[in-house]
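Researcher: I'm preparing a figure for a lab meeting and need a structural model of a single chain. I don't have an experimental structure, so a prediction will have to do for now. The sequence is pasted below. Please return the structure as tokens so I can convert it later.
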Amino acid sequence: QVQLVESGGGLVQPGGSLRLSCAASGFSFSSYDMAWYWQPPGKQREPIAIITGSGTTNYFNAMKGRLVISRDNAKNTVTLDMSSLKPEDTGVYYCNAEEVVGPGMYWGQGTQVTVSS
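Model: Understood. Here is the structure written out token by token.
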């Protein structure tokens, strides 16, 4: 059974940092690109960071420069380190797995991040 389980969300003050983690199971982790998506309140989900199986990273949108995505293929985990958080970063953060060659795509249940004083 495929599972992506996010953790690490919560309430953080503006300017603070947060680490999100995603534990994967049930599929060949190293054969998948892993990504983090962000869905702000009332808006569509969008990608913010991606890492390939070999560790190549790419970042998107206004959070670029404040994010670091990493993965541990031995532990089947992917993390997202976020810094200098702003109230507009508030939203639900989702872990995503997409098979490099093949149709597989999986989502975690999401973790809420609220940036507020």
